[in-house]
Amino acid sequence: MSAPRSHEAHVAGQFGPQAAAYVASTVHAAGADLDRMAARMRAVPGARALDLGCGGGHVAFAVAPAVATVTACDLSPEMLAAVASEAARRGLSNIETQAGAAEALPFPDAAFDAVLTRFSAHHWRDVRAGLAEARRVVRPGAPALFADIVAPEESLLDTHLQAVELLRDPSHVRDYSVPAWCAMLAGAGFAVERVDRFRLRMEFSTWIARMRTPEAHVAAIRSLQLGAPDAVIGHFGIEPDGSFWLDSVLIEARASSVSEQV
Predict the structure, then answer these.
(1) For the domain bounded by 7-151+172-200+246-261, which CATH number is listed?
(2) pLDDT score of 184 more than 60
């Protein structure tokens, strides 16, 4: 019998060996959402920022020139080591790293002036707990920016997305719809101020290589794509080689005060 394995260990095991690939990933290293995050932080001079679920560190790298400090927090020690190495290579001395799970952050209350997370929340075991922790560790009125892949509201499209995501990466939990995101943020104590939607093209061969997807799972994904109804093929723009488009969102919010939450 194999030893018990937590979801957190599963996530770290999936991403740790691919740390360098995520630092170098062109999909993750650029984008209008990342530019918007950097612009928003330039309006908060001297901020102590938290990059929650930092992955390859691209949020931290983008906002570091605009803030006093950035704490890059992630489950994977290998990912954090890769971020620290890349920060040093870029001369970004105000980036520090800290291991931790989104649902139990190792920081005191109101430790930060801003919280940002990008392409991470769909891996959290308990996204509501993670958002509550994000609210706990920022001061009232602090800007909070949340970017992630989002699910279509139509069940047919949502089911296809969750299936291919899980086959590609078994640490995937769920992509949430925009209405679900807004409701969860409100429940955690954030006031949503702006929602921007984007589309990202996933080049199939690099998409599966980045996660070392087993051949059996690759075949299953292609089978789902080839057998999908026209509505699915049309929405995701599935191409002959399996490449397709994902919907993403950047939600700008503000940490509500206690009086606003009553």
Answers:
(1) 3.40.50.150
(2) yes
